[in-house]
Specification:
By secondary structure, the chain is of the alpha+beta class. The protein has 3 helices and 9 strands; from the N terminus they run αββαββββββαβ. Helix content is 21%, strand content 38%.
Length: 198
Amino acid sequence: MIKPLSALSFVAALTLAGCVAPTGPVEVTRFHAPDISTLGKGTITVEPAPGHDGSSLEWKAYQAAVERQLGLLGYSALPAGTASSQVAQLRLSRESFQPERSGSPVSVGVGGSTGSYGSGLGVGIGINLSPRPSEQVRTDLGVIIRDRASGAALWEGRANFTVRTGSPLAATSLGAAKMAEALFKGFPGQSGETIAVK
């Protein structure tokens, strides 16, 4: 026989469920040159892509996360501005937005029937009492690895990730690590393929 949850147990279960931050997958797309023999080798620096500011603390957190992944791939990461054999140009954007509630908050339905004993007509009104959707944060991360001498693009990766603003992964430190790991998973990846990394 299954015992029903006590009121206290039910509240505790709801509290624990609220602590779990639902996360969607990181969507990743990669492209690379036909010759990938130079990828994952030699020295590399992570620098801001043209038009991007590399001085913010947020950008530096993503720089550190990308440098860590490049090191795991076999690169020797050098400080920005150093004459490395390759350069990883990093671009980053984050934006907050409020999703719209789907459908109208009020709906009206009309129904009718006809039978051998007469006919009837009914009107029903439905009110959507669901709470307003939580504010979301979308992060877009892009990295292009170039040959330092020629400037030729050897590899490019793009990742995007959307979470609630209240999620722990909305914090830069956790989000940067998750996105960088997803971006370089299975490096260099299938060129032109988009994958979802959980």
